[in-house]
Design goal:
The complex is a heterotrimer of chains A (343), B (331) and C (348).
Chain A (H helix, E strand, L loop, with lengths): L4 H7 L9 H12 L2 H17 L7 H26 L7 H15 L13 H22 L4 H20 L4 E2 L4 H7 L7 H19 L1 H11 L1 H6 L4 H27 L1 E2 L8 H10 L11 H20 L4 H19 L10
Antiparallel strand pairs in A: 1-2
Helix pairs in contact in A: 1-10, 3-14, 4-9, 4-12, 4-13, 4-14, 5-6, 5-7, 5-12, 6-7, 6-12, 8-12, 9-10, 9-14, 10-12, 13-14, 13-15
Chain B lengths: L2 H22 L2 H19 L6 H26 L7 H19 L3 H21 L5 H19 L4 E2 L9 H4 L1 E2 L2 E2 H19 L1 H11 L1 H6 L4 H27 L1 E2 L5 H13 L11 H20 L4 H19 L10
Antiparallel strand pairs in B: 1-4, 2-3
Helix pairs in contact in B: 2-13, 3-8, 3-11, 3-12, 3-13, 4-5, 4-6, 4-11, 4-12, 5-6, 5-11, 8-9, 9-11, 12-13, 13-14
Chain C lengths: L1 H20 L9 E6 L5 H17 L3 E5 L4 H15 L3 E5 L7 H11 L3 E4 L14 E7 L1 H14 L7 E7 L5 H16 L3 E8 L4 H14 L5 E4 L2 H13 L7 E2 L6 H9 L4 E4 L2 H16 L10 H4 E4 L2 E4 L3 H9 L14 E4 L2
Parallel strand pairs in C: 1-2, 1-3, 3-4, 4-5, 5-11, 6-7, 6-8, 8-9
Antiparallel strand pairs in C: 10-12, 11-13
Helix pairs in contact in C: 2-10, 3-4, 5-6, 7-8, 9-12
Classes of the chains: A mainly alpha (343), B mainly alpha (331), C alpha/beta (348).
């Protein structure tokens, strides 16, 4: 039931835009598919502005929200790629755990003599990327559904992380990255700037590169994409590998933000990130939504959770509020015209 | 001189015959082979693996996962997924303890009905509000978990006076534990339902080719609601059994059943795209996971390796059993 | 053909993985079993280390069962262990949750296995019903929360006068609830200290960091941050450091993980209470072993000694250096002759 037009559209690299700034913005908004997300975000902010008597709009709190949203946003920028191609990635926890442990053990610490300095950033990203690559290869070459591949991989990686980590809490003695991510040369913490940059780069990749468009072709109709000559397996492997790289980066930031590394670093991240991706309007059937949606989804959820903390909402009720918002947001924003039968 | 051409003729024949043989192998058969392989290794590792005590252990713990997986199977058969089973199991487990104290045996039907209602709500969100089941059940799962916290924020134990009501779950008949019997009966009922009832066949129909089902006038919404209600019912049964076994409830006890139930279904060879697989596959998938879980302890594999090994095994398991002929596109 | 290839690969994988990690079991010797929640935190890793040290000293095999916080796995693992050893074992249990104790007690009673339980049990479950249940022991959580609160109050600019925020552990957990009661007891005693807001962070370092960061934005002028354990204190210290408050506004904890000692020495944490899980493991196993060998008559143990609280060690800036050097870094030889040497009160 999917309109065929979306597929041909997906195959084409968009032409450059023209017109006045306002027109461009309007057109961009219309085409972007984030109008509903913008409205949701404004609504959530407004509700909590009333609820907290404006406390959530204080400069200090906005700073906090932006820097708290940064890491989930980077993870979401990775995870949504695997959803865009029509799969899913549950390996987040395991990958982050393994990267975190390696980051801890390779940075200057008191358990061993290692000190790779700032090289830890590319190394962390590479380890994550390698995990993603293996996942992608297993998924495509052994032809196992991504759900179960990534679930199994997550257990394997987490088990490895726990084994290597041996329950040590690895304190980092090199705080250069920590200082950098909290610095505010642009008015907001660098970690938030990094997250924004990542989202923009991924979005650019999705919009403006041939490979990026192929992601949507594969997610939209895999069989058709294959007929049109897209190397489906390669596209899928790429999506998982890039996602892995971003988990690796997320782990580097997570560990340095805290100054300690453990195998527990990735706990309780998976479902919030999937929720953010879905709230942002990325369709779980694949082929719809981009990094900007993941970013907005993360912002909405962070503002929501921050508002609940500021209002001192009963922690037991917080999971319920999250659930209601998830359903409500998707109910309002899901573009059912682009989907066939909803599964 | 004459032998050569003959050989040329026979070789393809042998290959053809081999292909035919392989073609006849169903995913279920491969799962059974897997189980035998794992079982052999485990019993070589420690002969106690096949002791009566241990077999009873595997079967009674396996039965709980089986019921959860059978429920999940309905959601998966129609091409959806139910991530709220964890919340439902938790909620029922705490509710049951309170209800047993106040209304005695009525707790059983009330809890089962609650499961049906929760499943129906999931179904309606999918069929009427038209939200994909992954999101819908992720959301309702959060809400139901909160409800469980409202009922009891911390794990509760049943009063010793109420222990009698738990005998339905905890007792045994001629040495066979009731949990296993409940699992077996559920299995047979669901098998019969899917084979012989129109609603059961519709579930396959909707799952395998929804467009065709729609065109032929099958009530898709109703079929999907039924599937989710049955999933809720099974989750409620699991909740009751767990609180029965523990003589207490716990607002987070269901969490681990979400992914484990899906894994059990998929390891058995059922595709997440829906329409294929069935109760027998789920039975063997569950047995495979239960054997692994138990066997790794019985043969004494280091705890550090257990989870990693389990991950490797489910990937290998699905790699072997997954029926690729029925799913051209693997997502 | 592909399928057969997979099958071969699978068999090979299985053979390799199993032959690599299978340990030989010694059924003629009593197996020492510790059941813990996970291997990914120092407290429980020490638990395993203590048990292994005891096993080495006595020449007995040790098995560590980790539930990963999953109660059903805990039961299944225990039954598998009973099958493995044929019941020739003693167990030291840290149950996942209080209600888990009843099925565990029944399983071990049926198998005739002596055991000691820690931390959680339903209030109305009596040990006297189970002849193989040697003891139920816990640290005094209320005292822990109280001690750390009072130490924290001392560090204020004007001691014992100011405001705090509190980071609570997992809401459903008995230790968390007890420690929070201790905090409230301290607040009652020092009416000039005000608790402006509290949030739960589920024992998780990351969550503690996030929550503290948000609370500090709302209440930038607090004088201290109370924390229910050390893991969360790490996150709190990171958040304080970011706000430029490290060393000025302090936190506290419980457990006694290495990072907490470092933080106490560095002056960003006021205190912690060390619970020696190595001792927990060795005490529990020794008691159960004594009962199994007939050296301890379970029926003759008085109720106060069947279920009781023991004291942890208070660690502050005054004693942290010597304490770490003498007790934490080396495996001490514990007094395992007198099971009740750290007894402080009976559990009703």
């Amino acid at each position: 039931m999917r309109p065929a037009a979306s597929n041909t559209d997906a195959m084409r690299v968009p032409k450059s835009m023209s017109g006045t700034a306002v027109e461009v913005t309007k057109r961009w908004l219309r085409r972007s598919g984030i109008v509903a997300q913008l409205i949701s975000l404004v609504l959530v902010i407004a509700v909590f502005a009333l609820g907290t008597e404006g406390k959530n709009l204080s400069g200090a709190n906005i700073q906090v929200v932006l820097s708290l949203a940064a890491i989930p946003a980077i993870l979401a920028a990775g995870l949504h790629l695997t959803i865009v191609i029509g799969g899913i990635d549950l390996s987040l926890q395991g990958t982050v755990a393994l990267c975190a442990v390696f980051v801890g053990l390779l940075s200057r610490n008191k358990f061993n003599g290692n000190d790779v300095g700032l090289w830890v950033v590319p190394i962390g990203i590479a380890i994550g990327g390698a995990c993603g690559l293996v996942t992608g290869l297993l998924h495509t070459k052994l032809r196992i559904p991504s759900f179960i591949t990534t679930l199994g991989i997550s257990w394997v990686l987490y088990g490895l992380a726990v084994y290597i980590n041996r329950a040590m809490i690895i304190s980092l003695q090199d705080d250069r990255i920590q200082t950098f991510i909290n610095d505010k040369p642009l008015g907001i913490a660098n970690i938030a700037v990094v997250a924004l940059a990542i989202a923009l780069i991924v979005q650019f990749f999705e919009d403006r590169t041939r490979t990026g468009r192929y992601l949507y072709a594969v997610g939209g109709d895999e069989a058709l994409a294959k007929q049109l000559g897209v190397k489906v397996d390669r596209v899928k492997i790429l999506a998982f590998a890039v996602a892995g790289c971003l988990y690796g980066l997320g782990a580097v930031l997570l560990v340095n933000r805290m100054g300690t590394a453990t195998s527990r670093a990735g706990l309780n991240l998976l479902f919030p990130v999937i929720t953010a991706v879905a709230v942002g309007g990325v369709s779980l059937t694949g082929g719809l939504g981009g990094a900007k949606n993941a970013l907005f989804g993360t912002l909405i959820l962070t503002v929501l959770n921050n508002g609940m903390v500021l209002m001192a909402v009963n922690p037991y009720a917080q999971t319920a509020v999250n659930g209601v918002v998830l359903i409500a947001a998707v109910a309002l924003t899901l573009d059912r015209k682009k989907l066939g039968f909803i599964k | 001189m004459e032998e050569k051409p003959r050989e040329r003729v026979t070789q393809p024949d042998v290959r053809k015959a081999a292909m035919r043989l392989i073609g006849r192998v169903k995913p279920v058969h491969l799962t059974i082979v897997l189980i035998l392989v794992v079982g052999t290794f485990m019993s070589v590792g420690n002969k106690e693996f096949l002791s009566l005590y241990n077999i009873d252990t595997i079967l009674s713990f396996g039965a709980i996962l089986l019921i959860a997986a059978l429920g999940q199977m309905f959601a998966i058969l129609i091409g959806g997924i139910d991530l709220s089973v964890g919340g439902t199991i938790s909620l029922i487990s705490v509710m049951f303890v309170f209800l047993v104290h106040s209304v005695g045996y009525w707790a059983y039907p009330i809890c089962l009905a609650t499961g049906l209602v929760l499943g129906y709500i999931n179904g309606v969100i999918l069929t009427r509000v038209k939200i994909p089941s992954f999101i819908a059940t992720l959301g309702t799962g959060g809400i139901i978990t909160s409800l469980a916290y409202v009922v009891s924020p911390r794990p509760i134990s049943a009063a010793s006076d109420d222990y009698g009501y738990f005998a339905v779950v905890n007792g045994s008949v001629w040495g066979v534990s009731n949990v296993f019997i409940i699992g077996l009966v559920t299995f047979v009922c669901i098998l019969a339902f899917l084979r012989f009832s129109r609603a059961g066949r519709n579930i396959y129909f909707v799952g395998s080719n929804i467009k065709m089902a729609w065109m032929s006038g099958t009530d898709i919404a109703e079929t999907r609601n039924v599937a989710f209600m049955l999933c809720g019912l099974c989750a409620a049964m699991v909740g009751i059994i767990i609180s029965g076994v523990r003589y207490g409830g716990d607002p987070v006890v269901g969490t681990s059943y979400v992914l484990n139930s899906v894994a059990a279904v998929v390891v058995g060879g059922t595709a997440l795209t829906g329409g294929t697989g069935g109760v027998v596959s789920v039975l063997f998938g569950t047995l495979f996971l239960s054997l692994l879980d138990n066997g790794m302890n019985v043969v004494g594999i280091d705890q550090y390796f257990q989870q990693a090994l389990l991950g490797v095994m489910i990937i290998l398991g699905v790699a072997v059993t997954f029926d690729r002929t029925k799913t051209p596109v693997i997502k | 053909m592909k399928k057969t290839r997979f099958l071969v690969a699978l068999l090979a994988g299985l053979a390799v993985s199993l032959s690599g990690v299978v340990q030989s079991s010694a059924a003629d010797k009593t197996t020492l079993v510790v059941m813990i929640r996970g291997l990914d935190n120092p407290y429980h890793a020490n638990y395993a280390a203590g048990a292994k040290a005891l096993g080495q000293a006595l020449g007995l095999p040790v098995d560590v069962l980790s539930s990963e916080g999953n109660s059903q796995k805990q039961f299944a693992d225990l039954k598998a262990e009973i099958a493995k050893t044929g019941g020739n074992m003693v167990v030291n249990v840290d149950p996942n949750e209080a209600p888990d104790v009843v099925p565990i007690a029944k399983m071990l009673e049926d198998a005739g296995v002596y055991w000691v339980n820690w931390w959680n049990k339903p209030d109305d479950v009596k040990l006297q019903t189970y002849p193989h249940w040697v003891g139920h022991i816990a640290f005094d959580a209320v005292e822990q929360g109280y001690f750390n609160a009072t130490e924290l109050f001392k560090t204020f600019k004007t001691p014992n006068k100011g405001s705090i925020i509190a980071i609570q552990g997992m809401l459903s957990n008995n230790a968390a609830i007890g420690r929070f009661q201790g905090l409230q007891k301290a607040l009652k005693e020092f009416p000039d200290v005000k608790l402006v807001q509290w949030e739960a962070a589920d024992w998780d370092t990351n969550k503690a960091y996030e929550v503290t960061k948000q609370l500090l934005a709302a209440h930038p002028d607090v004088d201290g941050v109370w924390s229910a354990n050390d893991n969360m204190a790490i996150g709190i210290v990171a958040a304080l450091k970011e706000a430029g408050l490290a060393g000025k506004v302090l936190t506290c904890g419980t457990d006694g993980i290495p990072d907490a000692f470092d933080a106490i020495e560095a002056g960003s944490q006021a205190s912690t209470e060390f619970m020696d899980s190595r001792y927990q493991a060795q005490l529990g196993l020794t008691m159960a072993l004594a009962a199994k060998d007939g050296k301890l008559d379970v029926k003759a143990i008085s109720p106060e000694h069947r279920a009781f609280l023991i004291a942890g060690t208070h660690v502050t800036r005054d004693n942290v250096k010597t304490f770490v050097a003498e007790t934490v870094k080396v495996m001490p030889t514990y007094d395992l002759k007198d099971f009740y040497s750290k007894w402080v009160a009976a559990i009703k």
